[in-house]
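[step 3/7] fold_predict: job queued, chain A
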Amino acid sequence: MAIREIRIVPDPVLRTPCDEIREITPAVRRLVDDLLETVNDPGRAGLSANQIGVSLRAFSYNIDGKIGYILNPVLEETRGEQYGDEGCLSVPGLWYKTRRADYARVRGIDLNGKEIVLEGSGLMGRMLQHETDHLDGHVYLDRLEKAERRAALKYMREHAAK
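[step 4/7] structure written:
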């Protein structure tokens, strides 16, 4: 197990859709261990595999003291609406109000190939959508209103040069 370095925008791995996990190998087991250890830090709600440089469909989460993971998650259902602050480990220091569904449900598998369903509202719903977006090659900045997205990108350009 290892705490892995977080990839930061504009790293291309963050914009590349992740591959489905077809076989549970020792490398996939190590990936899950690293995801769980890396997300186990105060203030971290979720972490996708591509955020640590691995283009496989997996993420870990740390919500209300519950830490877990899911492989090959598929966003099945969303409903309702929330509009609140959202941040991202791959976009450090920036928090913007982001529109998301309030409730979300994802379906995937565990390391034994057994089906898992994760669902929730509020922060859990936001995290499920945020992490599946990552696995599809999107970051939360893509969901911002046009003016906020422009301001965020400008901030990132200005601070990357320093």
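[step 5/7] annotate
The mean pLDDT is 95.
The chain is about 25% helix and 35% strand.
exit 0
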